[in-house]
Amino acid sequence: MPDLIPVGFLGLGTFVPQRVLTNHDLEQMVETSDEWIVTRTGIRERHICADDECTSDMATAAARAAIADAGLTPDQIDLIICGTYTPDHLTPSTACIVQANLGVTRPIPAFDLSAACSGFVYALSVGVNFVQTGMYRHVLVVGADAMSKVLDYQDRNTCVLFGDGAGAVVLGRVEPGRGLIGHTIGADGRGAEQIIMHAGGSREPISLDALNNRRQYMRMAGREVYKFATSIVAPAIEDALRNGGNGLCVQDLELIIPHQANMRIIEAAAKKLGLPIDRFVVNIDRYGNTSGATVPLAMGDARAAGRLQPGTLFALVAFGGGLTYGASIWRW
Ligand code: ACO
What we know:
Layout: E1 7-15, E2 19-22, H1 23-27, H2 34-41, E3 45-48, H3 55-69, E4 79-83, H4 94-101, E5 110-113, H5 119-132, E6 139-146, H6 156-159, E7 164-173, E8 179-187, E9 195-197, H7 208-212, E10 218-220, H8 222-242, E11 255-258, H9 263-273, H10 284-287, H11 294-304, E12 313-320, E13 324-331
Parallel strand pairs: 4-5, 4-6, 11-12
Antiparallel strand pairs: 1-7, 2-3, 6-7, 8-13, 9-10, 12-13
Helix pairs in contact: 3-4, 8-9
This protein binds acetyl coenzyme *A.
């Protein structure tokens, strides 16, 4: 097999909607309190789409920023993968809508990847292959979710946790020694029911009965997902290091950019990995869980704060519905 081309991030862009929903706003909507939400999750506020704003709008804004950041034009993108589980429609894919929004007229492939909150990290693991093998030069990977469109704002178990947002990167060739070091993705379908939208697919098409029972909304078995999340973050990172880390160990990681689902999950992961909490990027207080967008949004914050410098060794890690998980190790 020929040597693989080194692949890394050429550009990064993020987007969140303007409207902010605070814990105090939610106190007016369901029986909850700012104190409960902050102590149980670390979330203080989240951004929410306008009524006429959707996943592809956010994805397109993030994609434009990432392409400009890479110093490219949309026509130089060879493939678009959009990690989302709140697509504009079941068909067409959100990636195809983003392609059109960007004004890309070349017939490049574009598809969505459904792995819930792991969608962006999964999509990276898929996208890198096309660059490594020389098939494509520039792969646009987007993580975008409009969670507010699938939340039941009468269900305090879920509606306080999530927000909307998008992040995008352009993957391409980098100099040897930089970029991707190792990665892993996995799933345990036995937990499929733990994060689920019952109605709206082929199992249970939308019907009046479904709507009356609010079955189009996302439901989550919070405690079970919490157990899965706290058990998977450390092994996923260790596995990604084994898959190409070449002797690197957890202690060598200068920064961890984790899925932002719950501050307590991040703290538990830090403890399991034996790393100080200040090595983790945390922005859950401002955005909540934006599903596929959490990791690129946190990458954006890390870069803005000067925490991603040339050569910085860092890990991305996510978990979510499916149940799915993924991790990857990079040198910036
Ligand atoms: N406000 C006030 N009380 C609440 C709220 C709320 N918003 N939500 C639940 N409660 C109550 C519950 O009803 C329960 O009351 P009870 O004891 O009388 O039954 C009590 O608070 C405790 O509930 P728990 O579920 O035990 O609370 P916990 O400490 O486990 O926190 C949480 C719940 C935050 C959901 C946590 O389990 C969690 O973070 N789970 C993981 C979620 C996650 O990681 N998701 C990521 C994947 S998501 C994706 O892929 C889309």
